[in-house]
Each structure stands twice: as structure tokens, then as C-alpha cells.
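Before going further, it is useful to explain how the protein records used in this thesis are read. An example of such a record is reproduced below.

***
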Amino acid sequence: MNAQTFIKSLEEEVSHHEAVHHPFLKRFATEKLTLKQIQIFGLQHYQLVKIFVNYMTNLLPKIPDKDAVALFRTVFDDEFGQHTIFRSHPALYRHFLKSLGLEDEAWGRVKPLPETSQYIEAHLQQTRDAAFLVGLGIVGPAHEFAIPSMFEYIISGIKANTTLTDDDFEYFTMHIIEDKEHAVIFNKLIARHVETEAGQKQLREGAMLSLAYRKKFWEGLERAVFESA
């Protein structure tokens, strides 16, 4: 299949993947949650938030396209908060954690679940050591394209179980908008390298690998959040 047909097919596959509509997400969106349960979710998920840019910095030097830096600039600018670190994505997420009543040291002292650590280690290793198309599949379709759908569930749970304002959970609402835009940027780059079956196989390998670890991450959170109730 040609590049655009492949990208559309992969996005369709991603959009129906269990990691994107995991039972944990459905429970988080619909069940009654305590503040403690939302805090457990927030602290574990922050471990993924604070490391995401590292995947991109691992990947970027391996991409052969001379304009890759220019293509990625919008994504990096959004991640780092445009012109102020106070609106970087980790900073916005810490504001969310503070709104949940957590002290500054809470996110530095939290013990990652095994699934959280496995997720991070696998993504660092793959974006560093695997073929660049594998890394592109991880960061593009499995993150930028998939996250808006997953965050819809999270936002529903936050709204239903807290009195947080829109500003308090802006991190999540922002990503529903920004990541759709980022997915378009990544697709411009992806389209150049998936005209062959080999390229398509590597790109899909990265996306499916990332989603498999995301599924395990949600499984760990489901245990931690709902068995703690």
C-alpha cells in the first residue's frame, strides 16, 4: 500500500487498540473515585510525562531528514512551554498534582510501579537503540495520535470526582488539541519513509510495541488505583 493508505490504516488500528480504550480508562471515567485514587494515578502518570522529551531527543539525531529539527520545532516548543518554563508540560502537570493536594516532594519520592519503570526503560531503549522508524512509530502514532483518545477518559474521571477547575487539569485538555496537531507533523515525516513494505513494518513495530507497554502500564495502574480503594 502507498504511504498515505498505510498511515490511515495504522491510525485506524491504533484507535481501536486495547491500550487506547483500556478497562482501567473506562473505570476511571465512570466509577466513583476518591482523591487518594486520583493522586495514585497522577503520581504514576507523571513519571511518563517528565521523561517524554527524552524519547524525542534520543530519536532526533537518528532521523536522516535534514529538516527534521524544523519539523519537530513546534512539538519541542509546546513540550517546553513555548517561551516560559512555567508552561512546560511537566510544569502544567505538577500544577495538576498540586491541585490534588500533593506537596512538592510527593512526585519526587513516589515509587514507580514495576509497569511504570518497564514502560520508561523500554521506550528509552527503543528510541535510543532501535531503527529510527521504530522510534518514530513509538513517538508518533503510539503517543501523539493515541493520547487524545486516552485523555478523554481521564478528563471525564477528573470532572466527575473533583472540584478542580479547567485550569487545574489544563495539561490533559491541552493535549487533546496539541497532540492532534503534533500527529499531523509526525505524519509528514513518516510519509517519506513508509513507501516500502520494510519501512511500514518497522514503523508499525514501534507503534505496537509502545502500545503493548502502555497496556501493561494501565494494568499496573488498575491494580494500584482500584485495589487501594
